[in-house]
C-alpha cells in the first residue's frame, strides 16, 4: 500500500469514527490497541495489520473493501486484453462470430 492509499484509508477511518461519535481513545479501547498505535493508523503513519483492519471495519460497520479502497474502486472482471477482445467482437453479429469460431477450430485442428 503506497502512502497516498494509506492516507486515504486513514481519512475514511477518521470520518467514520467521527460519524459514530467515538473519540480516538474510545476507538483504541474498542479495538484493544494502544492510543498511540491507533493515532498512527488514523494519521496515515502506520499501516494496520489485517487483524486490526478487520476490527476497525467491524467497529465502524464498513466493509473491508470500502475501508481500504473507498467508493471509487472499479472492479474489472476481465483483464485489459480480454476487455479489448470483447469490445472488438461486440461489433459482429452472432452468425459472423460462429463462422469465425468454426474457422479457428479448423485452424487449431490443423496445427495439432
Description:
- Helices cover 71% and strands 0% of the residues.
- The protein has 112 residues and is mostly helical.
- Helix 2 crosses helix 3 (35-42).
- The protein starts with a helix and ends with a helix.
Write down the Rg: 24 Å
Instruction: Count every beta strand, where a strand is a DSSP E run of 2 or more residues.
Output: 0
**Largest sheet, strands/sense/barrel:** none
Class based on secondary structure composition and strand pairing: mainly alpha
H/E element order: HHHHHHH
Distance between the first and last residues' Cα = 46 Å
Low-confidence stretches: none
Average pLDDT for all residues: 88
Shape: rod-shaped
Helix content: over 70%
Discrete helix count: 7
Percent strand equals under 5%
Structural topology:
Layout: H1 3-20, H2 24-31, H3 35-42, H4 50-60, H5 64-69, H6 80-89, H7 94-111
Helix pairs in contact: 2-3
Keywords:
112 residues, mainly alpha
Summarize this entry quickly.
The protein is mainly α. The protein has helices spanning 3-20, 24-31, 35-42, 50-60, 64-69, 80-89, 94-111.
Amino acid at each position: 500500500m503506497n502512502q497516498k492509499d494509506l492516507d486515504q484509508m486513514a481519512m475514511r477511518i477518521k470520518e467514520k469514527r467521527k460519524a459514530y461519535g467515538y473519540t480516538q481513545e474510545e476507538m483504541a479501547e474498542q479495538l484493544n490497541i494502544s492510543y498511540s498505535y491507533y493515532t498512527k493508523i488514523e494519521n496515515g503513519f502506520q499501516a494496520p495489520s489485517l487483524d486490526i483492519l478487520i476490527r476497525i471495519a467491524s467497529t465502524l460497520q464498513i466493509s473491508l473493501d470500502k475501508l481500504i479502497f473507498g467508493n471509487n474502486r472499479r472492479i474489472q472482471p476481465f483483464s485489459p486484453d480480454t476487455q479489448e477482445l470483447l469490445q472488438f467482437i461486440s461489433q459482429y453479429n452472432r452468425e459472423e462470430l460462429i463462422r469465425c469460431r468454426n474457422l479457428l477450430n479448423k485452424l487449431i485442428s490443423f496445427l495439432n
